[in-house]
Amino acid sequence: MKRREFIIKAALTGAFIAVPKIYSSNKNNKNIKVGNSLRFPPELQAGESLIYKTVNMEVWPGTTTQVLALNNSYPGPTIRVKRGDNFSVLFENQHIIESTVHWHGLLVPELMDGQPKDAVLPGTSYTYSFPVTQRAGTYFYHSHAHHYTAEQVYKGHAGFFIIEDENESQLGLPSGEFDIPLLIQDRHSVYKPQFTYSPGNMDIMQGYLGDLPLINGTPEAYFEVQKTLYRFRILNGSNARVYKLALSDNSSFWVIGTDGGLKDEAVEVNNLFLSPGERVEILYDFSPFNLGESINLVSQSFSGPGSQGDQMNLLRFDVVGSGVSGGNIPQSLPAINYYDINSSKRIRTFTLTHTMTSGDGMHRINGLTYDLGRIDETIPFNELEEWKFVNDTSNLHPMHVHGVMFQVYARNGNTHLSPNDKGWKDTVLVNPNETVQVLVKFTDYSGIYLLHCHNLEHEDDGMMLNIKINQPTSVKEDNILPEKFELHQNYPNPFNPSTTIRYSIPVVEAKFESTTNVTLKVYDELGKEVSILVNEVKQPGNYEVIFNAFNLPSGVYYYKLKVGSFTKTRKMLLLK
Asked: Which of 31, 45, 192, 282 falls between 20 and 30 A from 208, CA-CA?
């Protein structure tokens, strides 16, 4: 690796420098401690609640900032779980405005997704409970309150959700103190030390772009490292800013993971783009450095609207010791089963536009702005689809889909993708005048989920749709199934040993008899019937039944409701 060039601080005043730093070609940083030591939020402990309220805390030394904190922490507590765990937490909203907790990237039941329609009102609480069944990876949580998402996230409502599993731990990646989560956010220097949220018309058009980068809530952050290999889990938690991540000497690093966990190979690069909502995991080796030297994680300049694309110093690494992580750059990673576009059942197009009509929602998808009570797309369960995101604007749009992990297929028809596009994704950046094709298949839960731009000003301004994931039915006919025919997610889930299952039979329409035979059965993961809960003629109405699994082993089970010729199925998890 060639000799690096290092950054010299522009001033030793202790004040935060809000302009891009200047690189020096002839000096190294040695023993410079200007700035603030990188902070790490506490980890949520089993049995703890998430208490959401306004607090004053020290972000910049010697002064306080009013933030929307969870458990008096900014960022919010890091949640660390094992795959297969039953996660449950009580969210207490002690703020004066409604809020939610959306588990970004996590595959959870509809009522656990923290959508705007399921707001937790001030002075109330809600228990989020779901099985952790997906791949190990770096996920996060944040507010998704209707029209308040951008402001609440900007003021502090966000944190890491990290899933681990045994398979990943056997790969020899850096771990423990050498496995570092980094949350990148930007703030406005003009309002320092407050997180004042006051977007104007141009901010709503382009996004609320700050000029002060905070890492894990730390301004002008530095992190002391050993001369060894590190794993960095990088999350773009900014409202709107896209980063072009690189090292200040343009040295290379290895990309090993994206939104949905590890890739199928480690790829060497010297920069990558990361848009709001996206995550990337990288490996970087500090062993070529001398003790006392430093290097910066930066965002390189690129062409973008407004201040989007400005160069920024993000985090300074100070090499202080010769400790060894014992980690390695893996020669291979677990295989990913990539979808075949030729197996796609249909194509859906989502065209991204904006208008200047005052008060009518500037940002649109397919000509629509968000309506809390409207279903915009109905999508069959377990069917592969090709989705095209067509950006007809001059803005950057990171498109996020709830309830699914998808795969990027092509950009403007080019299937040669950057390393952070390959693998499992839940958010993809769509550049101005670009068409991005992704392959999507919902295989976990049915119900109402969201598709939206993760530029949070765009989202709050209306660039969001409700998508309804239906279970497959035995009849291929549109509009034959009344909206109130519903099989709800069981609660609690996971459960031990009993859980409640609710279902609804609609008022009679031409497609149904006045009374209808109803069956509700439970099956194991292999499809074997293990219980018949209902098998009788029912009148229209709402029903619930208790399923007791005291004699069954832990595992995934499915329950299927059949009303006449129509069926719906959901998944549940028994943990003993």
From this structure: 282
Q: Is 491 left (phi over 0), alpha (psi -120 to 50) or beta?
A: beta
Q: Compute and round to an integer the Cα radius of gyration of the chain.
A: 25
- Mean pLDDT (the chain, rounded): 89
pTM over 0.70: yes
Closest CA to 92 of 104, 100, 84, 103: 100
Set out the domains of the chain in order of their start, with CATH numbers: 50-169 (2.60.40.420), 177-321 (2.60.40.420), 341-470 (2.60.40.420), 486-574 (2.60.40.1930)
Q: Is the pLDDT of residue 190 over 90?
A: yes
427: Cβ contacts below 8 Å, ≥ 6 apart: 259, 275, 276, 277, 278, 398, 399, 400, 454
Secondary structure of residue 112 in the 3-state scheme: helix
Beta-carbon neighbour count of residue 414 at 10 Å? Answer: 7
Non-local (6+) Cβ contacts of 275 within 8 A are 236, 242, 396, 398, 427, 429, 454
**Structure tokens given for 500:** 């409640």
Alpha-carbon distances, residue 158 vs 83, 400, 487 (angstroms)? 21, 16, 32
DSSP tag of 353: E
| pLDDT at residue 515 in the model | 53
pLDDT at 22 over 50: no
Nearest alpha carbon to residue 366 among 469, 468, 465? 465
Token pair of 386 as six digits: 């090709």
Q: Which residues of 331-343 are buried (b: 16+ CB within 10 A; e: fewer)?
A: eebeebeebeeee
